[in-house]
Amino acid sequence: MTSEVMPTVRADVEPALAGHAFVVNVDTGLMARQEYSPDGKQVTLTVLTSGNSGVPEGPCGTVDVYFRRVSYGKYHVGWVEPNGVVICNVQDLVEGTMTNFVSKPGADGGPPSGEMHLGTVRRES
């Protein structure tokens, strides 16, 4: 993750998620590609670098995604991964920043755990 944040869109056009692909870098060292379907109802995830996240590199699959515009260029985005991990994040496509919350199911029926992370988001296509 770099410390420099670069704008990812033109200032005169509000950025959108649907139909676009983004690369996110999380403070765990994880780098992933998020490719949103044209209708914005699904996201295809690929881990490019796992860093210290414990998530294996490679394709993760396509899941249903839910998002809502918070303000100009900012979206609250969430999905549930096949292994039960819940991802919720706020992506600021203008500033290129992201705040991420991860909720993992508890081991052996125990309580779930949660983690908060910071990162960057850059539009790729």
Defining key terms:
single chain, 125 residues, mainly beta, Lipocalin, 8-stranded antiparallel barrel, 8 strands, disordered N terminus
List the helices and strands and how they pair.
Layout: E1 21-26, E2 31-36, E3 42-49, E4 58-71, E5 74-80, E6 86-92, E7 97-104, E8 113-123
Antiparallel strand pairs: 1-2, 1-8, 2-3, 3-4, 4-5, 5-6, 6-7, 7-8
Gyration radius, to the nearest Å?
14 Å
At the first level of CATH, what is the class? Mainly Beta
Stated plainly, the CATH topology is called: Lipocalin
CATH architecture: Beta Barrel
Distance between the termini: 20 Å
Major sheet description? 8 strands, antiparallel, barrel
Bin the helical content: under 10%
Instruction: Enumerate the strands of the largest sheet in spatial order, edge to edge or round the barrel.
Output: 1-2-3-4-5-6-7-8
User: Could you list the spans in which at least 5 consecutive residues all have pLDDT below 50?
Assistant: 1-11
| Total number of beta strands | 8
- Strand and helix order: EEEEEEEE
CATH level 4 superfamily? Calycin beta-barrel core domain
- Helix tally equals 0
Indicate the proportion of strand residues.
over 45%
| Anisotropy-based shape | globular
Please state the structural category: mainly beta
